[in-house]
Amino acid sequence: MKFLLYVVFLLLTSLLLRVSIIATTVPVMKTMVVDLEGHGDFKSVQKAIDSIPNRNQGWIKIYIKAGVYREKVNLTKNKTRIVFEGDGASQTTIQWGDHCDLNTVFRTPDTATFTSAATDVVFKRIKFMNTFDDIKNPKIAVAMLVSGDKTSFYECSFIGIQDTLSDLAGRHYFKDCQIVGAVDFIFGYGQSIYERCQIIIRRGLPVPGWVTAHGRNKPSQSTGFVFKYCRLMGFSKVYLGRAWGSYSRVVFYNTYMEDIVMPQGWDSWLTPDKGINTNYGEIGCSGPGANSTSRVPWEKKLKLKYIRKITNISFIDAEGWLIKQGQ
């Protein structure tokens, strides 16, 4: 009964949050149009970004019309308060094909199709894609690297194979998004909630992959990946995550999992404590892949108080930055 009441509480809280976001919409002071056909202000997303003054105070929207934008985009720290809006993830695509080998892992950030280092940024209805496509010989190939704080994504798609989405640092909110990959394809040190997202495993992976690789090295760090009301599906076997630090934290909450999850669930990888100090857990999940009878013994049994804390929007947004973002 206590758990049922808590679920009802979460649903009501989520509804109230959506209402408050609508009620407190922040208008943009300027809209720029990017159009490949030349019927806008710019033909390039990067050129639109470059036109924005450094440390701008008001919200600016960059509307990216339908098309495939073959360019490498870099949003630096000195740009802020920007809304990027496309015509839909199936209509507006930003893509590039940089990649590197594991022996040059230090080049990982250089492979990103879109790099977002600014604070207070919103992305809506855009596909970010790394076009490297050899799943039999995966290479590091990032589609989106986000390291700026207070960044939100709505109805976006992220397409790649290995390291698709670098949730590198900062607090982030992903809602109704699609993330496609096979190896460590949601990775980084971020503090993020993924709500109602589709997580899709690519076909043809010769060995089991990993959905997440979260980095957390101290129990005092507030970071972690939380997946709420998501769907995990696809065509190759995967682990839910492998530890990119002894205190790596990933939680799947009320998520449907197809029969693609390895029975063990999690991989301790190179952690010296063999996963004992990781914060990996599942609660309320369903589907054949959610069968937990053979999970690793060090998967955490989550307590109600902890579930309430980590699944609430305040995990990433204690001060209310989401409702203050431009629309």
UniProtKB/TrEMBL annotation:
Signal sequence extent: 1-23
Record's keyword annotation contains Signal: yes
Pathway note: Glycan metabolism; pectin degradation; 2-dehydro-3-deoxy-D-gluconate from pectin: step 1/5
InterPro entries to which the protein is assigned, alphabetical: Pectin_lyas_fold (IPR012334), Pectin_lyase_fold/virulence (IPR011050), Pectinesterase_Asp_AS (IPR033131), Pectinesterase_cat (IPR000070), Pectinesterase_Tyr_AS (IPR018040)
Record-level Gene Ontology MF annotations: pectinesterase activity
GO biological process: cell wall modification; pectin catabolic process
SUPFAM superfamilies named among the record's database cross-references: Pectin lyase-like
Catalysed reactions, as listed in the record: [(1->4)-alpha-D-galacturonosyl methyl ester](n) + n H2O = [(1->4)-alpha-D-galacturonosyl](n) + n methanol + n H(+)
Chief location category: secreted
Sorted UniProt keywords: Aspartyl esterase, Cell wall, Cell wall biogenesis/degradation, Glycoprotein, Hydrolase, Secreted, Signal
Top-tier EC class: hydrolase
Record has Signal as a keyword: yes
Location of the active site: D184
EC number: 3.1.1.11
Record PROSITE patterns: PECTINESTERASE_1, PECTINESTERASE_2
Domain Pectinesterase catalytic: 32-317
Function: Acts in the modification of cell walls via demethylesterification of cell wall pectin.
Family, as annotated: Belongs to the pectinesterase family.
Name used for this protein in its record: Pectinesterase
Organism encoding this protein: Dendrobium nobile
Organismal lineage: Eukaryota, Viridiplantae, Streptophyta, Embryophyta, Tracheophyta
